[in-house]
Specification:
It is a single chain. The chain is α+β, with helices and mostly antiparallel strands. It contains ten helices and 20 strands. Strand 15 and strand 16 form a beta hairpin. The longest helix is centred in the first third of the chain and has 16 residues. The mean pLDDT is about 95.
């Protein structure tokens, strides 16, 4: 596409719009994906998609329209304006946007290794070799699943307040799953990768693959853990998912605006944890799948402190939610692609480093659980349930026996209070898939974390 001409055209249209506020996003994405299931290649594809989105605010109403060709922009802008005018008298409260300084910026990040430079055949050959390695590793491995995807997007955003942002986003992610079966019992182990800057994260996965196979096979013989209350040490993958799912979503201000009970609970200044607990969300984390310089409202995706020294100090905002709640935008308005309007979403949600050594976390735990990785879960306001993909019993201050069927449940606020120790080393774990809020899935996000130790966690087990 002729991006320079598109920028000029977009800004000319925005200058002429009579609406209170108008914005146009235009994007072009190149994607590659494939999937192996067992020994067979199940799907493979490459594609280029072009599209755009327009939002218009008129009085009390939003109008939204998407399009697939630059030639449609003017007509769709008129349509979005008309939709906003129709919606306005039907809304019972005005829509306000928090003021932000206009930004005029080109941001094309440094990419260490670009997947666009790698032929599809070479990508597939690498993962076909990985898949074969799993299938041939042990007789108990009866099937596998290997998923790969990359997406490179150039996105131009402009509004009628003077902002013009031209940025490139890259996402690389995938997973390799080994499935071990004995009779009717099937267990899984997995390796995965993700990055926003470097295709080379797909290289050298053999050690992780071998460990996935060993885990799947070992889980066939692993005992279930008796249900009860345990001291739990959560490794970075598990701790990061906890921060994202159990607490991060409660910090998204658009949902808080609609939930009076949770808004009262999430009162700024309230203590939610010990002084060594810090949680923040940021777009400024190169390499993370949640890395971005500007959000989809053209606002810098700055760091947003959520909990500082155990106290709730902030939340994640779009311009509308920030104005409604009298706070500052955080650059957290994100859309999956041009088919959707932006809404409050996480970028990279992090638990801050503590001051303990990892061995200190295990010391003194006579009987507990070391939860290495998650395997699904759900949240309902402040209540959560997470299943462990891989976990070990802790006995005498050391991880010992691999156990299975481990489910962690509880109240997120009680759990935050019970985090009594945090490792000083932050794990930069990048899982595949993405966040699924509001049917805009999978949106790339990150969740970095150190190891954390949590007292008195309710564990549902499957002791055999």
């Amino acid at each position: 596409m002729d991006w320079d001409s598109i920028k000029i055209h977009i800004e000319e249209l925005l200058r002429r719009t009579p609406a209170d506020y108008a914005e146009i996003r235009m994007e072009e994405s190149e994607t590659t994906s494939f999937r192996f299931r067992g020994p067979k290649l199940e799907t493979v594809g490459e594609g280029i998609s072009v599209g755009g989105a327009i939002r218009v605010l008129s009085g009390r109403g939003w109008g939204f329209a998407s399009f697939n060709s630059p030639g449609e922009i003017e007509e769709r802008l008129a349509r979005a304006t008309r939709l906003a005018e129709l919606a306005s008298p039907r809304r019972n409260r005005p829509v306000k946007l928090a003021p932000v300084d206009p930004v005029r910026q080109v941001f094309h990040p440094e990419i260490s290794s670009d997947p666009r430079d790698i032929p599809l055949e070479r990508k597939m050959r690498r993962f076909e070799d990985y898949n074969r390695r799993m299938l041939e590793a042990a007789e108990e491995i009866t099937s596998t699943q290997v998923v790969y995807g990359d997406r490179k997007t150039r996105l131009v955003f402009a509004n009628n307040q003077g902002t013009l942002v031209d940025q490139v986003k890259l996402d690389i992610q995938g997973a390799l799953v080994a499935m071990a079966t004995r009779g009717s019992d099937t267990q899984m182990g997995n390796a995965y990768f993700g990055s926003s800057t470097d295709y080379s994260v797909t290289a050298g996965l053999e050690e992780g693959i071998d460990e996935a196979v060993r885990t799947a096979v070992a889980l066939l013989d692993a005992p279930g853990v008796p249900g009860g209350r345990y001291t739990v040490i959560a490794a970075p993958p598990m701790a990061g998912v906890f921060a994202h799912e159990a607490f991060g979503h409660l910090s998204e201000a658009d949902d808080l605006m609609e939930n009076e009970r949770m808004r009262e609970t999430m009162t700024l200044g309230r203590r939610f944890g010990p002084e060594h607990l810090n949680i923040f969300d940021t777009g400024d984390s190169p390499g993370s799948r949640g890395f971005l310089k500007y959000d989809d409202e053209g606002v810098p995706a700055k760091r947003a402190d959520l909990i500082r020294e155990g106290v709730l100090v902030g939340r994640l905002h779009s311009r509308q939610s920030a104005a409604t709640m009298g706070e500052e935008p955080t650059g957290s308005a994100r859309a999956l692609d041009h088919r959707f309007p932006p809404m409050c979403r996480m970028r990279n949600t992090q638990i801050g480093a503590g001051d303990a050594e990892l061995e200190d976390l295990f010391a003194g735990v006579d009987r507990g659980l070391y939860v290495v990785s998650p395997y699904g879960g759900q949240t309902d306001d402040e209540m959560f349930t997470f299943m462990a993909g891989k976990a070990y019993l802790i006995e005498g201050g050391q991880p010992t026996e691999l156990v299975r069927d481990v489910t962690l449940t509880g109240n997120v606020f009680h759990t935050l209070t019970n985090i009594d120790m945090i490792d000083r080393e932050v794990g930069r774990d990048e899982s595949p898939g993405g966040c699924g809020k509001g049917e805009q899935s999978p949106l790339p996000v990150g969740h970095w974390s150190p190891h954390i130790r949590i007292r008195d966690v309710t564990v549902g087990g499957g002791a055999r």
